[in-house]
Each structure stands twice: as structure tokens, then as C-alpha cells.
User: Fold this.
Amino acid sequence: MTQEPGTAHGAVVVGVDGSEESLVALDWAVETAMLEGRHLHVVHALARHGNHQGAAIVDTARRRAGVLAPAIRVTAEFVEGTGTAALVAVSRSAAIVCVGAHGETGFRPRFLGSTALSVASAALCPVAVIREPLMGGERARRIVVGVDEAAGSHDAIGYAFAQADLRGVPLTAVHAWHSSDRLGLSGAVTPADRWQTLIGNEEAAMAECLAGWSEKYPDVEVSRVSIRRSSHGAILATAGDAVLIVLGSRQPRPQPDLVGSPTIRRVLQDAVCPVVVVPQTTH
Assistant:
């Protein structure tokens, strides 16, 4: 099977490889396609499987999607080469690419696979990294977005607001800081004055990043967390009951093999809910 012209354009794309986590990613992709009114495009790379096995994997995915959402359009393609290359290629026209946190070669439950990391580092559209949820956790009830103007979070904030609006859940914006770059004080000041000035400056920077989004999405309930802590620590600590974590990644990246920042890599590794990495494409 080869791709029909334009079948990935505007689609929710999901990579499947026969692993359980790729089916979890498929389920999340189906839900997203339904919420956003998009079609689903299933991609399977033949690097590890022959045509017969690959056809069975794709057929299973299509039937599963049909059961979950009979009304959505589902297209599929086989590609030569690796899953990473295939998913990065379709990211040029897709709305979002979804991938399991690890594939059939994953050997630890919380292990982050190379395909997930590589696709998130190179894709030109948002990438959702999905892992099977832990059992017995709290009911997921919020979206968490990292806010950092230096990391290119504008498009990520917009994506997070849109998803919170679609899913009908509150949004928590998290801004972590650890330096005194914004103090701008001169002369003799007390430690308390310095601390209050620093807090105020960081909160003002966060408010500037969020400006305008609540007006665009008035139904989204927003809370703000501004804390002196490592970025990944602050995000993960806030996301214990999250349905989704959204992070921004500046484009172009200084090193293509890195996922934006150590924060993104740490969150992708340690999160217990889906994480969407949104490349910053607006300036």
C-alpha cells in the first residue's frame, strides 16, 4: 500500500509497529481525531517487518480505529525504511503526529524509545508521545503547559488552550525560574525586597506570555504556577492529575538531535501522561 496524494494533509497521524504502546497511541490519536474533526492516517514502516506482517499490523489498527470511531475517515500507508523517517516526513503536512513512548523493542515500562525521542526532536508539527497510563492513579482532570519565553512556548500555549477548550478541562500554566536575571536592582536593598521584586518580575513575565489567550478561549479555566525550581521538576510536580502535558520547542533547534532542551527530554522520560511537544513556528 502506498500513500494516496494528500492523505496525511491535516490529519492526525499515528505510527504503529504492532507493540501494545503503539495501540495505546492509536487510541489517543482516534480520540484526538474525533475531537478535532480530522481524519486519521496510520503509518507503518517496513524496516522490521515484511509486507505480510506489516499488512496485518495495519489491518489491526484500522479495525481498532473503526470500532472506536466508526464515523472518522481512516487512511493508511506502508513505507520503506524506519518509522522515524516516515513520521518526520509526514509531519510536513500533518496536524499532529502520535507515537508510543516505546515500541516493540522497549524493555522497561517507563523506558523512552529512540523513535519517540527522534520524532519529537525533528518533526515539523506537534508530536504526541503516548505511554500506557499507570493503574490506580487519580482521575486526569487538567492540561499542564510549560511557560518559558526563552524556550519558544508561544505556540505551545496556544495549543494547550485549544486542547483545554476541546476537552472541557482546566489549564494550568507552569513557569519555573531559578536565577535573578530579572531583578534589575541597584543600590542597597534588603533580601526581602530582592525576593519580592524577583517574584513580581517572574509573574509579570508569565502574564506577558499568557496575554490574549484567555480572551480567545474565555471558557477555559486557567491557574498559574510560578515557582523557583527546575523546569522539569515544576512541570512533573504539577502534572500528577494531568490528562496532557504541553511543551514548546524552539525552531530551528541548535542541534537537530536534541529535543529542544533537557527539560523536554526529562519530561518525556518521566511523565505518566501523554506529552505533546509543539515546535515554535511563529515569531
